[in-house]
Each structure stands twice: as structure tokens, then as C-alpha cells.
Amino acid sequence: MTDSFTPPADPQAAIATYRNLNLVGGRHVPVSASLDVLNPATGAVLGQAAASTASETDAAVQAAKAAGPAWAAIPARERGKAVAAGGRALLAHFEIVAQVLARETGKAIRTECRGEVKTSADILEFYGGLGSELKGETIPFNPRMLTMTTREPLGVVAAILPWNVPLVLMMLKIAPALVAGNTVVVKASEEAPFATYLAAEILMQHLPDGVLNVINGTGADCGAALTSHADVAKITFTGSEAVGETVYKSGAERIVPVSLELGGKSPMIVCDDASLEKSVAGAISGMRFTRQGQSCTASSRIYVHESLYDAFLAALRAELDTLKIGDPLDEATDIGTIINAKQAAVVAGYVAQAEATPGATVIRCGAVPEGTELSPDLFALPTLLLDLPEDHPCVQNEIFGPVAVIQKWSDYEDVIKRANDSRYGLAATVWTENLSRALDATSRLNAGYVQVNQNLTIQPNVSYGGFGRSGLGKEASLEAMLAHFTRSKTIVIAMD
Ligand code: NAD
Questions:
Q1: Which one of the listed residues 125, 241, 261, 398 is annotated catalytic?
Q2: Which amino acid residue places its CA nearest to atom 36 of ligand 1?
Q3: Rounded to the nearest 5°, which phi and psi values hold at 385?
Q4: Do you know which Gene3D superfamilies this protein is assigned to (predicted)?
Q5: Quick check: 132 and 77 in contact, CB under 8 A?
Q6: Whether residue 217 has its Cβ less than 6 Å from ligand 1
Q7: Is 262 close to ligand 1, i.e. is its CB under 6 Å away?
Q8: Nearest atom, ligand 1, residue 426 CA
Q9: Which of 22, 156, 273, 455 could staple 286 via S-S, CB 3.0–4.6 A?
Q10: Helix axes of 94-105 and 76-92: crossing angle, nearest 10 degrees
Q11: Which helix (H) or strand (E) holds 43?
């Protein structure tokens, strides 16, 4: 543990620091092959990141395994203090981390990246205070037998990250895992690995060597080698539904616990008595338009009561038209780029399907930036899809772009049914001033995170996780740490 690391002040230099290496055992460990990481806003190569092989992945797991017993032997509160100190260090360096994040994800520095780093630091601080909450129970089994449970760490945790909010999602995994006494191997997203490395290296200054390790590579090579590794005791994954299934199967083969945070198609129900102003603002924040809609929680199915529909649509369009789409590094920019050409083609494909649907209407808002060196293909306009049948792919599937489906409703029972007609169950919101209706809707909506008259993002101390094909298990909160990063041992002591 040292406190000597100062990140480079220049984002490009910070990115170059992590050229072709992993962070293993507290050191920079070169690997044999690399992959290019592109700046989505320009299309230029931003840097080279590790393309780890199975044996390079194994080296990280071995480092984590070796560090495990000594880390687990440190009192829980002391582990928590180290994690919290890492959070404060991250906050102290938030600007450089945010600058790297904006370059690799295409997310706007002002509206997205700085906030993401600050939330990441907050998650570390939050979990850092929970060391002494790793409590067991005493059980009144028999007066002559002291019966209790204790909480133990699981061992080496594999944490697999996506590209859309890599830092927040990393901290939601590693902070509870570390405080609970586990050691961790993070598999960064190959689309956006550098901010993950930089944030981890800042945090590692406060942790013993090998407790936190970061590797990068493709899912097929590095990811699969990690999830199938015999010494990994727990897998925590955030990503797509399809890869989530593969990861779950890999855990099942070895009977290790798996947490999955997958996709969503979250409904937002606007009732006839809702505040127009609040619900329109909630649609913009909930749909995560400033993140190009690249959010699993996005309120991407918006059901508006027929009496408000026209006014809601007009106000939403007017607000979306004011958002500036452009260079993620420009302080004036609200909306940056889609992560890559493949994802941009997926988004465009869904919009084309809506356009080809008889009776449907497609509304594009805002304007693509012109006359710059930016790559115009990756700037997707905020798009509203109207009058689609409920079984349309755009209504049923996660698009993961700035595309919201707006549906009209008149009958409350019918809209609850339509809202629940989804294979997903991640989040839902309802907008009404009627308390009875709000309570009724919250009890009937089939989603793990239901809000009324607001559309908050993930909070460190509030459990978050989906039902159905949105995933398994919870993240954030004490509940998530106890349920997913510890095991419970029952001890019965005869007193006679
Ligand atoms: P992805 O599933 O393609 O990749 C996620 C991670 O899994 C990457 O690090 C990738 O390298 C790795 N991976 C790929 N194949 C693997 C394999 N066979 N074994 C092990 N690891 C493998 O997802 P993505 O495109 O990076 O992220 C977007 C997806 O993530 C969206 O579908 C979105 O809904 C989901 N997401 C969910 C949440 C949530 O909390 N529910 C949050 C953010 C993103």
C-alpha cells in the first residue's frame, strides 16, 4: 500500500500508460497481444489495450487467490477504511478519469462523465462504512447450544463490465466484494477499458497488492477464461442478455454463484393527473438521452394518458430539440456519440423497422453536428416512435440507443397489462398525484426498481436489480453485499 501514484495530467498520456498491459498483483504486467480502442467521436485509434489470453487471465486469478487469506484476515472495518480512502483518492482525481472516460465512451464530459466518476467515488465511500455490518445472527435453537451464523468472504470474485457506465458498475461490484473480504479480478470492457484501469490504479494505492486486479481482452478469450476458471468463487456480470446466459451456464458448470445485471425495456406510465412539466423532464432523464439512451434502466416505453398525449409529445419534442449533440469533450455538449459503428447500426436498424411499419410515425429531434472532424455516423438523434403495435420489436426489445417508444393509453387496467407485457423487469415509473393509484401501480408493476414521480439513477444505498430476463440478484445497498459477496456459516456449540 502506497500513496505515491499521481495520474498523468494529460488524458492521452494516461491512456498510453495502460498500453498493452494488465494490473496484476499491484504491478503493470505486459501481455502478448493488444487490441485497438477507438475514440467513437472521431473514429481515430485512441490507444492499445491488452488482449489477454487464458494464461494471462489465469495470472490475475492466481494473484487474487494468493492475496485472499491476508486480506480476509484484516478486520472488516479496516478493509472498509481502505476502500473509502480509495474513494476519496478517486474523487481527488475525478477530472482526469472523466476526461479519459469521455474519450473512450463518446459520452459527454459535462452531462455524463464527471458525474459518473463522482458517483463511483461515492459508492466506494458508502461501502467503506459498512465493514462492521458483516454480521451474523444468534438463533434460539436450544438453551444449551449456542447457535449462530457468521459471514465469510467467498474468495476470488470475477467482475465483468460493459462499456456504457463502466466505472459505476465496477464500483458496485468491487466495493462490496472487497469490504466483505474477497479479492477481485475485474475484466474491463474492451470497448472502453482505460478509465477502468486508471480508476483501479488510484484505488490500488490503498489496497495490498493482488487484492484488486484488472485485465482486459475479448469476451471470447479473456471473459470466457475468467468465468470458467476453477479458482473463481463468484461471478458478477453486467452486460447483454445473450452473454449473460453464457456466463450463467459457465457458473452453473462449476456450481458457483452468479449475479447478472442484464437488459431492460422499462415502462414509464404517465397518468391523466400527472404534472406535464415533471413527467417530460422525467422522460428525458429517465430515457438517459444525454447518455445516448445507452442505459439498461432507460424508460424506453413511455405510456401517456390520451388526455395528456398531445401536450406531452409537443413538450418532449421541444425539449429534445434544445439538447446539443456534439463533441463529447465540448463543455456545451449535452449528447455525445453511440459507442461504436456496430451499435449505431443496431439502433438505425430498429428505427428503420419502425419506419417500415404501416401506421407508425418516427420523429427525429435535434441535429447532427456539422463541419467538424467528428464521425457523423455515430451521432444518433433522439428519436420518438409512435403508434407501434405492442408486439413490435421496437416495443419488445432493448434498443440501447436514444430511441423511445411513446404509446397512448386510456384504460388503467389495460396500461398496467401493457407495461408488464415484457420479458424484462428492471425498472418502471408511474407519474400521478393520486396516492392510491401510485400505490396500486407500484405493487403491480413487474420490475425490481419502481419509482413514482421521479426517475433517479442507481443510488449506492438502494437495492437495484431486475426480474425476469433483466437478471439475477441485487447491486448497491447493504443487502447486495451480504447476499452476493458473503456466505453464511452456521455454528452450533454444545454447552454441556
Ligand atoms: P456485452 O454482453 O457484449 O459485454 C459485456 C462484457 O462481457 C464485456 O466485458 C465482454 O467482453 C464480456 N463478454 C463477452 N462475451 C463473454 C463471454 N463469453 N464470457 C465472459 N465474458 C464475456 O455487453 P455490452 O455491449 O458491453 O453492454 C451493453 C449491454 O449491457 C446492454 O445489453 C445493457 O442492457 C447491458 N447493461 C445492463 C446493466 C444493468 O445493470 N442491468 C447496466 C449496463 C448495461
A1: 261
A2: 239
A3: -110, 125
A4: Aldehyde Dehydrogenase, Chain A, domain 1 (3.40.605.10), Aldehyde Dehydrogenase, Chain A, domain 2 (3.40.309.10)
A5: yes
A6: no
A7: yes
A8: 41
A9: 455
A10: 70
A11: none
Whether 11-262 shares its CATH topology with 267-460 is answered no
Are residues 219 and 73 in contact, defined by beta-carbon separation less than 8 angstroms? no
- Does the domain at 267-460 match CATH 1.10.10.60? Answer given as no
Q: Whose CA is nearest to atom 42 of ligand 1?
A: 296
**Domain boundaries defined on the chain:** 11-262, 267-460
Ligand 1, residue 242: give the atom nearest the CA. 2
Q: Classify domain 11-262 by CATH number.
A: 3.40.605.10
Please work out whether the CB of residue 190 comes within 6 Å of at least one atom of ligand 1: yes
Measured in whole angstroms, the distance separating CA 464 from the mean position of its chain's CA atoms is 10
Q: If DSSP states are collapsed to H, E and C, what string results for 264-289?
A: CCCEEEECCCCCHHHHHHHHHHHCCH
Q: What is the pTM of this model?
A: 0.96
What is the average per-residue pLDDT within 412-433? 98
| pLDDT band at residue 368 under the 50/70/90 scheme | confident
105 pocket-lining for ligand 1 (C-beta < 6 Å): no
| Identity of the residue numbered 6 | T
Neighbours of 378 (CB within 10 A): 23
Residue nearest to atom 13 of ligand 1 (CA): 219
Dist. CA 468–CA 211, nearest whole Å: 33
The 10s digit of each residue's pLDDT in 324-353 is 999 999 999 999 999 999 999 999 999 999
